[in-house]
Known about the structure:
Chain A has helices at about 5-20, 25-35, 40-45, 50-70, 75-95, 95-105, 110-135, 145-165, 170-185. Chain A is mainly α. Chain A is elongated, with a radius of gyration of 19 Å.
Amino acid sequence: VRPETSRRLLLAAVDAFSDRGYNATTTREIAERAEMSSAALYVHYRSKAELLFEISRTGHEAVLRKVERALDGPTAPPERVQRFVEAFVSWHARNHVLARVIQYELRAIPPERFGEIRELRKRFDHLITGELERGIATRDFAVADVRTTALAILSLGIDVARWYTSHAEMPPEQLGAAYGVLVLGMTRGPALT
Amino acid sequence: VRPETSRRLLLAAVDAFSDRGYNATTTREIAERAEMSSAALYVHYRSKAELLFEISRTGHEAVLRKVERALDGPTAPPERVQRFVEAFVSWHARNHVLARVIQYELRAIPPERFGEIRELRKRFDHLITGELERGIATRDFAVADVRTTALAILSLGIDVARWYTSHAEMPPEQLGAAYGVLVLGMTRGPALT
């Protein structure tokens, strides 16, 4: 639970960073978007970098919770991979404004804070790698290079944040479902023809 | 053929935009990176936006030439799609600094210039869509939704610009080849199991 003013600042910062980029945004602009003074901003966050870190942390945690929930149920590897992709992709579509900040401003996170974000990011990699390995063991999947396949699956979801707009043709869930099917194709290995 | 100073400015602008983002970069910084005065910059480019447009146009033309050359030869749809992906992906890996600018700064291109870039971008979509349709006609591919599949294929290549670094594990061509195989999997449709 976050105090209301603190939350308003975070949301204003998400909009500003997503719109103009972290480097081009000043704390003054963020305060203005939140209809507050810069002094009031510093009561809640020590710096612009601290705001970015907070956005990044809460964003990564939100999508992680969503994929973990999606994996809580199905047991067959293909269905699990499909559910993972649906959750990951639809989150990036629905939250594309926030997603742009968490995915494209990683370099601006203060080095002493980056470790925490890196650990969160590793968990996605770990989850999808585990699912692929399980599916190889059950012979559901024929994946030649688990690492590159895991990378490609996450990459597909992340890039949704770049191109998805609120007036995109496909609702987030429908896009997630379509991508889930495409990724299952990827797991079947090269054609034998 | 571009005069040497003009070229030096373009390269300096690519580095600056890729590093800090278009909005956070000033023409003065670009001139400094090119070891020139701001006045000298304006002899060659009217504005920062004009530099971005020029970078975007030449970048899009370069990758377009590369994929067109890759398609000049093979006739079977699976091989053609594979060649397209190899060329598109390896270009984004090898030229990740430039690619970040052409893929992530589209919103900053002046509206009166954007039409030209949009037309270039449509050609990639047109090319891969055509290849998918050809492969459906020959029954090499089982693609339920050509549009989304084309989007996903381009998306995979574009996102390489985000994560690829000069010290990435895989050389550009090897990554392109691995992605080519993954995309062929995508074209095979959902598993029947």
